[in-house]
Amino acid sequence: MAKTELYVVRHGKTMFNTLQRVQGWCDTPLTRTGEQGIHYLGLGLRDVEFTEAVSSDSGRAIETMRLILGEHVRGPQIPYHIDKRIREWSFGSLEGGYDAEMWGVLPRILDFPDYDDMIANHVSFEAIANAIYHADTANWAETFDVLTERVKNGFEDIAYRVEKKGGGNALVVSHGLTIAFLLHLINNENNVRMDIDNGSVTRLVYENGTFTIAEVGSTDYIKKGVALSQELLS
After folding, report:
1. Is 74 one of the annotated binding-site residues?
2. DSSP calls for 141-205
3. What is the end-to-end Cα distance of the chain in Å, rounded?
4. Which of 69, 93, 118, 179 has the fewest CB atoms in 10 Å of its CB?
């Protein structure tokens, strides 16, 4: 049986990412810069053998997957599924506001003077989730337990399905905080301040029902795609 590995990609840069606005279950399209970055990512991944592809149900994740598969040598033949369990966190009534506003409110709820002090004190994902849940006046945000169950089950089910079919690589497009949270669930030493860039690749190995982290937030495939694009133009 081949090794089972997930190539987990954060979606391309969107309008709200550029404007530094909170984007969880709400959605904005990829910018031209975001599309270009994913175009290069697709070129960098074009020769990787994928047994299946899975994205969240958010438009930005679906568009990212479309662009990657469009560059892949076997893109049309790779089975593609959508799984809403790997979507971003819901920020409820905080959605659409500026990042600085949300990250200004949450420290006060958790009794910290500011964001930097909150992070310096190694605030937990559970505390952040609970603060969002209590700050949300629309009652749409998820509790920590609900988040844990859906994210854990979503990614484990993808890996288990691949493993059951004989193993191999799966291409997965998800979201920044969801990926960082998954890394924390795998190894709780991974804290809230995780740099998961748009278009970066996090590789996870799955064996005997357990994930291990092979690589976090790599932009090497984008760089490879840029180099390949330049070669093709020369």
Report:
1. no
2. SPPHHHHHHHHHHHHHHHHHHHHHTT-EEEEEEE-HHHHHHHHHHH-TTS-S-----TT-EEEEE
3. 41
4. 93
Q: 195: closest CA among 172, 179, 171?
A: 179
Q: pTM value?
A: 0.96
Q: Is 112 annotated as a binding residue?
A: no
Tokens 């890394």 locate to 183
Contact predicate 6/29, CB 8 Å: no
Q: What interhelical angle do 220-233 and 32-45 show, nearest 10?
A: 90
Boundaries of every domain in the chain = 4-92+154-233
Assess whether 11 carries a catalytic annotation.
yes
203 is in an annotated binding site: no
11 is in an annotated binding site: yes
Concerning whether 52 is annotated as a catalytic residue, the answer is no
Beta-bridge partner residues of 30: 14
Tens-place pLDDT, residues 134-178: 999 999 999 999 999 999 999 999 999 999 999 999 999 999 999
Place of tokens 């996870």: 204
pLDDT score, position 194: 63
Amino acid at position 158, single letter: I
Of 5, 63, 71, 88, which is the active-site residue? Answer: 88
Rounded to an integer, the average pLDDT of 216-224 is 97
| SS3 call for 23 | coil
Domain topology for 4-92+154-233? Rossmann fold (3.40.50)
What's the confidence (pLDDT) of residue 120? 85
**Which pLDDT band holds residue 193 (cuts at 50, 70, 90)?**
low
